[in-house]
Design a protein that fits this description.
The protein has 452 residues and is mainly α. It is built from 19 helices and 2 strands. A two-stranded antiparallel sheet has the order 1-2. Helix 2 (16-27) packs across helix 15 and helix 6 (93-124) packs across helix 16. It starts with a helix and ends with a helix.
């Protein structure tokens, strides 16, 4: 398929709001709803938030903007954009890394996303009523280690495919313009309910009171790592979305809007969770168990808790769906443009492949599984290798490509579309050359160390 044919057939975002809703939906995932509040509380509260915001400015934003610049300039999928901007070189490997990461992340992420459907149903039917903490814990372990998650994984994946079926404008943009305001509305309802509970002030204190005594080098590394991963960068997702952005849009403005939306939702999630956790004397340091074990205990003790529980898990479902849709798009855009396959066939092939990988990831969570190696299941390895290895490498290569390989006049042209100043362009290029690569390299080395 020629580049001219691709250009003629390419879809695109029809409005800035649709673009920001889709990109913010990609960035806002399960990690924003439970991981960010948890690591904030464990690392000095608002002292950690300050370091995180600095990390967003120094690492997250430069990589996000780099993906948008490369994607819009290339005007194609993650592999072809690099072929166009650096012909006859090895740089397209960045796009391949993104596609590999997309398959790996979808393999385990759709499994967890499927859990949210199950827990929405449990909450609506008030299934936790009368259960003890031990029974709620047992309920989760029995479910996650059984075969039922496979059914929910397939259901969730098919829902994502339904959204993707309409393409960018009539699919992703159309539904994220509904889903993202819905997500914000739900989280605000949960925030209002949480802060009106007796004892909620202790939760807010836990989350926001600066405690620099809790800060350490690990806290700074956590802030760097989360700022990088929370914006959904390093896998070509935003690069792919960038290829659909109109030349009329100011990329700097769009990038900042997405980062602000992502951070605000993460903070609101903390305000929705921790006041309720403290109000009922639940352990706030539950880590991964916070969502499916700790919070059902909280909702069980709250008046109208089954309704608020259903709303919370619906919030998780929306966050997961918008993220999964964006990751799928990386693969679909590649298949349609490089393999000359129409979108609907590409969706079928991709979804079948993802479901197969997800089934194996889910089965690796069952007792006595053979799908484990070196103490980690297939599910764990998909998570660890994508987050700690592929995404940091991808992000580092992307930022190095833009800082040292891509033509400066092309970068300036993309940045100055929508009236970005020359001064801003020069500051950005300085960050991409000297600050962001060092910070990402630190994140990568830390992640590698965590694997061994």
């Amino acid at each position: 398929m020629s580049q001219e044919t691709i250009s003629q057939q390419r879809d695109g975002f029809s409005s800035r709001f649709g673009l920001i809703a889709a990109a913010a939906g990609s960035a806002v995932g399960l990690g924003n709803i439970w991981k960010f509040p948890y690591i904030v509380g464990e690392n000095g509260g608002s002292a950690f938030i300050l370091i995180y915001l600095i990390s967003i400015l120094g690492v997250g934003l430069p990589v996000l903007l780099a993906e948008f610049i490369i994607g819009r300039r290339g005007g194609a999928n993650a592999v072809r954009s690099f072929k166009k901007l650096a012909p006859n070189t090895k740089w397209p490997i960045i796009g391949w890394l993104g596609i590999i990461a997309a398959f790996m992340i979808l393999g385990f992420y759709t499994v967890i996303a499927g859990y949210t459907i199950h827990y929405i149903l449990l909450s609506l039917t008030n299934a936790f009523s009368g259960m003890s903490s031990e029974q709620i814990t047992q309920t989760f372990h029995q479910f996650s280690s059984g075969h039922a998650p496979i059914i929910y994984t397939i259901i969730f994946t098919l829902l994502a495919v339904f959204v993707l079926f309409g393409g960018i404008k009539d699919g992703i943009e159309k539904y994220t313009k509904i889903l993202m305001p819905g997500l914000v509305g739900i989280i605000i309802l949960l925030v209002v309910r949480a802060i009106t509970l007796p004892g909620a002030a202790e939760g807010l204190k836990f989350l926001f009171k600066p405690d620099f005594s809790e800060m350490s080098m690990n806290s700074i590394l956590d802030a760097l790592g989360h700022s990088f991963f929370s914006l959904s960068v390093g896998m070509g997702t935003m690069l792919t979305y960038g290829s659909y952005i109109s030349k009329k849009e100011n990329l700097s403005t769009v990038t900042c809007s997405i980062a602000v939306a992502d951070t605000m939702i993460a903070l609101l999630a903390g305000v929705a969770i921790f006041p309720a956790v403290f109000a009922f004397g639940i352990d706030p340091t539950a880590g991964p168990g916070l969502v499916f074990i700790t919070l059902p205990n909280v909702f069980l003790q709250m008046p109208g808790g089954n309704i608020f529980g259903a709303l919370f898990f619906l919030l998780l479902f929306i966050a997961a769906l918008t993220s999964v849709v964006s990751i799928f798009e990386v693969i679909i855009t590649y298949v349609t443009e490089e393999l000359n396959v129409n979108r609907h066939k590409a969706l079928k092939l991709t979804s079948i492949a993802v479901i197969i990988i997800a089934i194996f990831c889910s089965l690796s969570q069952t007792p006595n599984t053979a799908l484990s190696f070196n103490g980690n299941t297939l599910f764990d390895w998909m998570d660890l290798l994508s987050a700690n290895v592929i995404l940091p490498i991808g992000g580092l290569l992307i930022i190095c490509f833009l800082g040292f390989i891509m033509k400066k006049d092309e970068i300036a042209d993309e940045l100055q579309q929508g009236a970005c100043s020359i001064k801003t362009t020069m500051i950005y290029l300085t960050i991409t050359k000297f600050i962001a690569p060092l910070a990402i390299a630190i994140v990568f080395l830390t992640g590698i160390q965590a694997l061994f």
